[in-house]
């Protein structure tokens, strides 16, 4: 509802969408001026006061004395009525989400299915964190607590109607860790979004893959046993790219995690991008010469001591499924070349993972908050521990 005095721009209210939550477009501001709801109400009040004053001036200048009093009194009374109605309607806006949206077809075209979202305006001159790097030289964001607004990200992501996959390998005795992995995933991982768990195990009869959420499902795939942890980690690259190719993994985004991690706090869509890697908590402050890259020139994973951006852990990475396919396929091919030459990289698939990311830069980097270890002393830059290593000794 709007008072009748706004009819002069009512057409534009109907036709112009709410371009951003809490902002409107006005005919009185050259069609391009944006302002929040409180400022809008004040602007309309001032505008109406000017119109009323102009009308009274016109009455006194161009009408006879006998009618001036009556017309002025009538105009004054109508103005008071309009002001009281506007105050009432403005107060109603506190409880009505669509008070100023119009619910038009054009609104849906600009902002399909989204609810009104009010948040503090970002300050372009004041970065959210000053004690850590928040963007890389290749303009990839580095995700820390305080650098994102999950409400905004959730709203943007839900409009895409995407499904997120979470893959995990629970082979040998590691199947015992799956319960804690899935329970903490259900509690902290991608709340409010569609998720498919992909569990790979050599003992499917021992695995209980359940979820408490209606928007989630769990798929268990049987895989072969392997004689060492190194083989398990390296074989993962082959299995993932083959299953993506065959559509056994059929999602828009895929998060890959080791079963010996547990979720400790909320992990949401802030971790998603084309290709996402996580900083190793033990090396994010050190010089590249200390990184545990593969230093043997005979290995496909070789990185010289004067190269490398960061050291990434391969136990928690993510990306669009097409990018994960390309990465896992490339790593698998490099692993097989090394294998044919009798070489196993120093840190197995993680060494090849770091070599790939040296030449294919991640589009987003997760801070060590997303793969912390209790064996490392926590410092002030780690504000929230979201993912931690679990117990490896089974």
Automatic annotation (TrEMBL):
It comes from the Eukaryota. Keywords: Glycosyltransferase, Manganese, Membrane, Metal-binding, Signal-anchor, Transferase, Transmembrane, Transmembrane helix. One of its GO terms (biological process) is carbohydrate metabolic process. Mn(2+) binds at residues 258, 260. The lineage of its organism: Eukaryota, Metazoa, Chordata, Craniata, Vertebrata. The active site is at residue 350. This is Uncharacterized protein. PANTHER family: GLYCOSYLTRANSFERASE-RELATED, HISTO-BLOOD GROUP ABO SYSTEM TRANSFERASE 1. UDP-N-acetyl-alpha-D-galactosamine binds at residues 174, 258-260. An alpha-L-fucosyl-(1->2)-beta-D-galactosyl derivative binds at residues 280, 292, 350. It holds the Pfam family Glyco_transf_6. It is found in: Membrane. It comes from Pleurodeles waltl (Iberian ribbed newt). The chain crosses the membrane at residues 40-60, 69-90.
């Amino acid at each position: 509802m709007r008072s009748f005095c706004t009819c002069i721009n009512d057409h534009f209210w109907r036709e112009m969408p709410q371009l951003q939550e809490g902002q409107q477009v006005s005919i009185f501001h050259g069609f391009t001026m944006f302002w929040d709801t409180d400022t809008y109400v004040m602007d309309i009040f001032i505008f109406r006061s000017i119109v009323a004053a102009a009308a009274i001036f016109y009455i006194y200048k161009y009408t006879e004395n006998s009618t001036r009093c009556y017309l002025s009194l009538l105009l004054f009374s109508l103005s008071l009525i309009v002001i009281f109605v506007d105050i009432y309607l403005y107060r109603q806006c506190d409880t009505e989400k669509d008070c100023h949206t119009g619910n038009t077809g054009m609104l849906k075209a600009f902002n399909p299915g989204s609810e009104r979202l009010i948040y503090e305006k970002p300050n372009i001159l004041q970065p959210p964190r000053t004690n850590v790097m928040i963007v890389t030289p290749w303009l990839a964001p580095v995700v820390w607590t305080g650098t994102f607004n999950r409400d905004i990200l959730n709203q943007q992501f839900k409009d895409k109607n995407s499904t997120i996959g979470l893959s995990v390998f629970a082979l040998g005795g590691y199947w015992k860790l799956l319960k804690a992995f899935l329970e903490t995933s259900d509690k902290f991982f991608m709340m409010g979004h569609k998720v498919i768990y992909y569990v790979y195990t050599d003992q499917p009869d021992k695995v209980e893959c359940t979820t408490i959420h209606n928007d989630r499902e769990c798929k268990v795939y049987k895989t072969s046993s392997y004689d060492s942890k190194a083989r398990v980690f390296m074989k993962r690259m082959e299995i993932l790219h083959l299953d993506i190719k065959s559509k056994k993994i059929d999602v828009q985004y895929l998060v890959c995690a080791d079963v010996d991690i547990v979720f400790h706090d909320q992990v949401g869509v802030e971790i998603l991008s084309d290709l996402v890697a996580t900083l190793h908590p033990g090396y994010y402050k050190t010089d590249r010469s200390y990184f545990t890259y593969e230093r043997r020139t005979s290995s496909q994973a070789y990185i010289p001591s004067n190269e490398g951006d960061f050291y990434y852990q391969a136990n928690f990475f993510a990306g669009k499924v097409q990018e994960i396919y390309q990465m896992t396929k490339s790593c698998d091919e490099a692993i097989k070349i090394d294998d044919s030459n009798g070489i196993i990289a120093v840190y197995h698939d993680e060494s090849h993972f770091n070599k790939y990311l040296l030449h294919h830069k991640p589009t987003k980097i997760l801070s060590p908050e997303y793969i912390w270890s209790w064996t490392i002393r926590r410092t002030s830059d780690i504000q929230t521990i979201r993912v931690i290593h679990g117990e490896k000794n089974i």
